[in-house]
Design brief:
This protein is α/β, with parallel strands linked by helices. The protein is about 35% helix and about 25% strand. It is built from 12 helices and 14 strands. The protein has a 6-stranded mixed β-sheet with strand order 6-7-8-3-9-10, sandwiched between helices. Strands 2-1-4-5 form a 4-stranded antiparallel β-sheet. A 4-stranded antiparallel β-sheet has the order 12-13-11-14, covered by helices on one side. Strand 4 and strand 5 form a beta hairpin. The protein is elongated. It starts with 5 loop residues before the first helix and ends with a helix.
Length: about 350
């Protein structure tokens, strides 16, 4: 009797890819208010567990995009879903997976903040006992548990910001949306909030952050979408975006020439003399620096000191929102800011 080939067949079957549901999927999303196009064909996706940033100037469409996802704004056209649930036809399923901390303080001011959180959880079908437990956990997470019996109006400005985050957390969301969460807060509170939301992301919560603080996006986000005038300009990691800009290399020479020496390297965008320094702009300053030193040495120039000024996310952001291609002008950060 021959052996069954089943065992061999099992190992010959191809492995099929596992489908992963996106936390956010938007396709050609549009929203207009009369002649004003607040969202102009936004398409983007956010993966589960990702820390994703929306970066843009005021009026770029960041808050409109968020409000569309949570059902506060009705889209004009296009499609969007949250964890596979359509934001309109499956609104309840989508909304129950979102925790939102908006810019505005839209809070019931007549109850102690612990009760406000219990009421909020109840809106999502959570039992009173479970809601009470979650309220305590949320207040402890943001560091204001000792103020649980205080009314919202009696909290300090920083505590109000912490409470808005607690309210977003009380439903134990899979997607946490933070709309300018650190606007107007002091440096210490900003760093405290960064630590809290980073820990939440590390535990598996997907984060969508809107901000106009460049440092915030650079420090926290896995990827950022730069928006302007309702449009998505680009999506990339902060590191990839910074690689699009030009680094500035300053080499102090023992005997600086009146004219920049001829250096044959295609990676150089521009070079000029500033006093005793040769200034070079290039996309990858760290990679080209050794070649610059060798070329100068072969030309008879002694390099006394070298400094590399990395391009910043702010420079790339300003270039993109001004309709320029980052790195083409070789301008310094100070020149761009002016």
């Amino acid at each position: 009797m021959s052996e069954s080939p089943t065992h061999d067949i099992l190992f010959q079957l191809p492995l099929l890819p596992i489908a992963v549901t996106l936390a956010i999927s938007a396709s050609n999303l549009k929203k207009s208010y009369g002649e004003v196009q607040a969202l102009d064909g936004i398409s983007l996706s956010v993966e589960q567990g990702e820390f994703f940033g929306l970066l843009g100037p005021n009026g770029a469409g960041k808050t409109t995009f968020i409000n569309t996802l949570v059902g506060l704004v009705k889209k004009s056209s296009g499609d969007a879903s949250v964890f596979g649930y359509d934001i309109e036809t499956e609104y309840r399923e989508a909304r129950d997976r979102i925790g939102l901390a908006p810019q505005e303080y839209n809070v019931d001011r007549f109850f102690p903040i612990r009760e406000v959180l219990i009421h909020k959880a109840g809106y999502h079908g959570i039992t009173e006992a479970e809601a009470a437990s979650r309220a305590e956990t949320a207040l402890k997470t943001v560091g204001i548990y000792d103020k649980r019996n205080t009314r919202f109006d009696w909290l300090s400005g920083g505590m109000k910001r912490r409470f808005m985050l607690a309210r977003a957390l009380v439903t134990d969301p899979e997607l946490l949306i933070l709309d300018e969460p650190t606007a107007g807060v002091d440096v210490e509170l900003r760093h405290d909030l960064w630590e809290i939301i980073t820990e939440l992301n590390d535990s598996g919560t997907t984060i969508l952050l809107t901000t106009h603080y460049i440092e915030e996006a650079e420090r926290l986000c896995d990827r950022v979408a730069i928006m302007d005038q309702g449009r998505k300009l680009t999506v990339a990691s902060p590191e990839s975006l910074m690689e699009r800009g030009s680094d500035t290399i300053r080499l102090t020479l023992a005997d600086a020439p009146s004219e920049p020496p001829a250096i044959d390297d295609d990676r150089i965008e521009s070079l000029w003399i500033e006093g005793a320094q040769l200034v070079v702009t290039a996309r990858t300053g760290g990679e080209i620096a050794p070649a610059l030193i060798r070329a100068l040495d072969h030309s008879g120039h002694t390099v006394l000191d070298m400094n590399i000024e990395r391009t910043s996310l702010e420079e790339v952001f300003v270039s993109l929102t001004n309709g320029e291609e980052p790195g083409r002008t070789g301008a310094s950060q100070q020149e761009v800011a002016q």
